[in-house]
Write a structure and sequence with these properties.
By secondary structure, this protein is of the alpha/beta class. The protein contains eleven helices and ten strands. The chain has helices at residues 5-21, 38-54, 69-76, 91-98, 134-143, 158-170, 182-190, 201-209, 259-272, 276-284, 297-318; strands at residues 27-31, 58-62, 84-88, 110-126, 149-152, 175-178, 196-200, 213-218, 246-254, 288-289. Strands 1, 2, 3, 4, 5, 6, 7, 8, 9 and 10 form a ten-stranded mixed beta sheet that branches. α4 (91-98) crosses α11 (297-318). It is globular and about 65 Å long. The chain binds aspartic acid. Aspartic acid is lined by residues 33-34, 37-40, 89, 91, 153, 157-159, 181-183.
Length: 323
């Protein structure tokens, strides 16, 4: 049935007014992982850069747990008014293949707001590991089968996906230890309670630089240029053929957020991503800022859909599910 014109007009005007006044109160940016971790670091830099172009305050709330799916579910169910926004990563595309009962529909429950950056990962270990190179790590893993602890940020996190693909590539099962983010996982790695972890360079660069963890390889197909990371081989070079993973981030709002609000956030995001200070801080941590078509909500959504389809068979082959 068609909406009568008399009814449609006031509705359209209300939506327009909402967008014209937006934002007139603080925006909550949900980070679906623990504070101090890699996604939190992207969020804090972005919140600072987007504040001015958006014309409002951005408050970060960390909703960690279940590999990012709790925070994503919170945003999927929030009021669609532009005041609750999610910063999420590749986990938004791996979770549909990993969870039997995901509490939201990735392609239906969100407005896509544009992508932010791509972050490579590193394979790191506790400093007390005897292995000094990737080749030595390979031997140590073989010799310690059944006893190796691999830390990650929960099923659906990037560290989980990387760890899952790594175990399946080298055909060696490890004891996986989940945390609410790789910030607390890193604490345990520093303390020697766990052995190894795959984590984003936004969280590992400083620790590698100061020698607090051992770094063995990068997960991307090309070596990295940051001074602390340049000498690391790629996993592919080190013998894990075809391994290539980096962690992309994007912004999401609840489905039904007015288009004018979506456009306003997207415009502010594009300006924020050009901010020289944001670039400097993110690039120093190994992140690459998105500067292509995926800045547009339509292309962002297409990319996520393609990633879901790309990851699904790989995850099925690696064979792991959660409820
Ligand atoms: N991004 C997560 C965090 O911020 C870690 C992960 O996904 O592995 O803790």
């Amino acid at each position: 049935m068609r909406t009568p014109l008399l009814l449609a007009l006031p509705l359209a005007l209300t939506a327009l007014n909402a967008a014209a006044d937006y934002p007139d109160k603080p925006i909550t940016l949900i980070v679906p992982f623990a504070a101090g971790g890699p996604t939190d670091k992207v969020a804090r830099d972005l919140a600072e850069a987007i504040r001015k172009p958006l014309g409002g305050t951005v408050v970060i709330e960390n909703v960690g747990g279940a590999g990012g799916t709790l925070g994503a579910a919170r945003v999927a169910k929030a009021a669609p008014d532009g005041y609750t926004v999610l910063l999420h990563h590749i986990g938004i595309a791996s979770a549909p293949s990993l969870y039997r009962n995901l509490p939201y529909k990735t392609l239906e429950d969100f407005e896509y707001l544009g992508m932010v950056n791509e972050v490579p990962m590193t394979l790191i270990g506790r400093t007390t590991l005897p292995a000094g190179s990737y080749a030595e790590l390979g031997k140590w893993l073989e010799a310690n089968k059944g006893k190796i602890n691999l830390a990650h940020a929960g099923v659906g996190s990037a560290s989980h996906l990387c760890g899952l693909l790594y175990q399946s590539s080298i055909k060696l099962d490890m004891i996986t230890v989940p945390y609410k983010g790789t910030a607390p996982a890193m604490n345990d790695l520093l303390g020697g309670q766990v052995d190894i972890m795959c984590d984003q360079t936004t969280n590992t660069t400083g620790q590698i630089e100061s020698g607090k963890v051992k770094a063995y390889a990068v997960t991307t197909s090309k070596r990295l240029s940051a001074p602390a990371l340049a000498k690391l081989p790629t996993l592919d070079e080190a013998g894990v053929k075809g391994f290539n993973m980096s962690v992309w981030h994007g912004l999401y709002a609840p489905k039904g957020t007015p288009k004018a609000v979506v456009d306003k956030i997207n415009g502010a995001l594009r300006t924020a991503l050009k901010d020289p200070e944001f670039h400097k801080r993110q690039e120093a941590l190994g992140a690459v800022i998105i500067a292509d078509a995926r800045l547009a909500p339509v292309e962002h959504k297409k990319f996520v859909e393609a990633e879901i389809n790309k990851l699904s068979p790989v995850i099925k082959a690696a064979g792991q599910y959660a409820d």
